[in-house]
Design brief:
Helices cover 30% and strands 20% of the residues. It is an alpha/beta fold and 401 residues long. The chain has a single domain, classed as Alpha/Beta hydrolase fold, catalytic domain (Rossmann fold), CATH 3.40.50.1820. Strands 1-2-15-14-10-9-6-7-5-4-8 form an eleven-stranded mixed sheet, sandwiched between helices.
Amino acid sequence: MQVTGHRRVRRATAAPEAAARGHRPAGARTVVGAAVASVAVLAAGAGPAVAVTPASTAPAAASVGTRAAAAASAVRVASIPISFTVRNVNRSKVACGSDGKTYTVRGHLVAPAGAVRGGATRTATLYLHGLGFGQFLWTFEAVKGYDYAATMARAGQTSVVVDRLGYGASSKPDGNAICVGSRADMAHQMVQDLRSGHYTLRGHRPVGFGRVVLAGHSYGSQIAEVEAYSFGDVNGLIQFAYADRVQSLVAQIALSIANENCATGGKRVNPHGPRHYTPFGDPVAAPMALFNNAAPAVTRAALPQVSIDPCGDDASFAKAVTVDLRNAGKITAPVLIVEAGADAFFPPPAAADQAALFTHARSVSTAVVPGSGHAITLSIHRAVLDSAVLTFLRTKITNRR
């Protein structure tokens, strides 16, 4: 346990399996090597660059017992379509433009079967994916053992996973009509809807949850952070594979390529859909970098699901970083930061540097998933991630071990 000022920072690591080293997909080595070689601050004036050091690989502190694992595997999981009606407005602290129109955000509520009920003591965690992804990041069923939301459900947790606006099953506005500030506002609306039960749950009566935790992956982490300091309405904040100040050269180049594509009009989201969408970076190299050190079967199944992104997201990212650095210290809810130890975009020491920003949070915990690439929920070492999240939810949010 590392102590920083008046806050205790927990750090969990586990030793990577030797066999896992052979799971890095061919073609990702050059991209990942560049990321490990150079890390810099993306936003000018955000602070000094942070040097990269290899992730530590201490032995795991604990493992799930066979009885507990058997009991968890016996739990039936319900995955129920959910939808939210949101307005694409921006009342956050990050000033950027949005169209103000009303849209539908779709996803799934994943929970233990028969346990879809709310109340003051019930907790739901809302998950926001990053650039290029969708709700499939949390509900990956193509390869057995990688469905993160189902794992959480078997452990008694309720997860709400969505395709953010412009992705998957959700509405598709013009790509320039969205920005990180409006994303945060829509996340705020969904948080409030989960509290009040003001959403649609297919075949079920919606329920209200007394506690709502907001979690994000990569760019989704930034959205969650902006929501937390702009509206102050979440019971906890979880950030996966993200840091405001520690970003690799690969990430900077990818963002630059995306913004260049957008400057010339970008692409249509689909053959007949709105314009101003773009791949994040090189259409081949950047997606491969998402899955460095993932099992080959996972990479093969995931790559076809990678999507293009709204240009407004890419355009507003760097500006939001400077606002984050001024406001992250205002967040008082408990925070968990999970670092991907072999992340091509936000490499070590991302978690430690990000943790230092939350100076007034009731607690700040960090965990490292060693050997994991950017798509952290699809890591071969995801048990470390699962353990960190469950410990956080049980000890910092619900106070139930």
